[in-house]
Design a protein that fits this description.
Blueprint lengths: L1 E4 L2 E5 L16 E5 L5 E7 L7 E4 L2 E2 L2 H14 L6 E7 L9 H16 L6 H14 L3 H4 L4 E4 L7 E4 L7 E7 L9 H11 L3 H20 L3 H20 L10 H15 L5 E3 L6 E6 L3 H11 L4 E5 L6 E3 L6
Parallel strand pairs: 5-7
Antiparallel strand pairs: 1-4, 1-14, 2-3, 3-8, 4-7, 5-6, 8-9, 10-12, 10-13, 11-12
């Protein structure tokens, strides 16, 4: 089974997990699927006697990292099967571009299909539940367009398709292609257990997510953009106050943030966000895109820019021929 997925960019951030849960998010995230950034995964049933195995970019992954995922797949899908998967990304992996969201979503959907679940709402809901176990943001990447993952939820909710907001654009500025030093999962737990700002972050995120969802429903770019900025800045502030501190930003990250502030001072809508990594993603509307690109290139000439927009949901196709 071949599966194509795209990463899910949180406009309002999920950061931290519910204590005692199975990878349940502590905060609500509102997200968009990014068109043109693709994860392509081949999932097959393992041969008799083979165990589960995953390769990413040709590199065999730690089996212990994936064992709970595959055990849950067999439980959820009532399947005795073991699975082998190989995955490739068209964008840097483990660098703050949500590759885990598209990767685990693809793996969950492939396992569901091979276990006999027909494509449709039920299969997507179960795949979202399973994908969350690997990466909470992956629960959203099972769907295209715009999605919501409520705090404490086992699965994401599709909100609107990619055509809902035709002028919605995201410029991804790559500050580096290198893998980040601190994993999202580890940094979240460190923040939860050691940052004095973690509990206030969780409380504040409830209000921000409610207001952001209302702004999204109104297609109010100004309001949504402002709330996006509050969300990522407060998320990173909580992480920076951990012990030891978690800091993903690079000099180019800061230069790009300042460029967005300068654009807004000129009346041009450019609202940045960052995840667990140094990459800066800038939300703007299509009429402002050229000005935003020009400003980002001037601010950080060495950064690669990728222009994207709300993307479709995953694509599944049966593998042709024997393997």
């Amino acid at each position: 089974m071949r599966v194509r997925t795209s990463p899910s960019l949180a406009l309002v951030k999920y950061w931290g997990k519910k204590a005692g849960g199975r990878n349940l998010p502590a905060t609500t995230s509102l997200a968009v699927t990014l068109a043109g950034l693709d994860t392509r995964t081949l999932v097959r049933v393992a041969a008799p006697g083979e165990g589960d195995a995953v390769q990413v970019g040709g590199e065999l992954q730690d089996a212990a990292r994936y064992a709970p995922f595959f055990d849950e797949a067999r439980r959820l899908f009532h399947s005795p099967l073991h699975f082998a998967a190989s995955s490739e990304n068209s964008f840097p992996s483990a660098a703050g571009l949500a590759s885990s969201s598209s990767g685990f979503a693809a793996l969950a959907l492939g396992c569901a299909a091979l276990s006999g679940l027909a494509e449709g709402p039920r299969a997507n809901a179960l795949a979202s539940d399973l994908a969350r176990l690997g990466s909470a943001s992956a629960a959203r990447a099972v769907y295209g367009g715009f999605t919501l993952l409520p705090a404490g939820a086992r699965r994401a909710e599709p909100l609107e398709g990619p055509a809902y907001w035709p002028d919605f654009r995201v410029v991804v500025a790559l500050a580096t292609r290198e893998k980040k030093r601190d994993s999202s999962r580890g940094a979240m737990e460190l923040t939860r257990t050691s940052s004095p700002y973690y509990a206030p972050w969780v409380r504040d995120a409830r209000k921000v997510s409610r207001e952001a969802l209302a702004a999204f429903r109104d297609r109010d770019a100004q309001k949504l953009g402002e709330l996006m900025r509050l969300s990522y800045l407060r998320m990173h502030a909580s992480a920076l106050a951990a012990e030891p501190p978690v800091l993903y930003w690079l000099p180019d990250s800061v230069a790009l943030i300042k460029a967005c502030a300068a654009l807004r001072a000129r009346g041009i809508g450019a609202w940045e966000t960052m995840d667990a990594g140094p990459q800066v993603k800038v939300f703007c509307l299509a009429p402002e895109l050229a000005a935003v690109e020009a400003a980002l290139r001037e601010a950080a000439p060495g950064c690669e820019l990728i222009v994207t927009q709300p993307g479709p949901g995953p694509d599944l196709s049966a593998e042709a021929g024997p393997r």
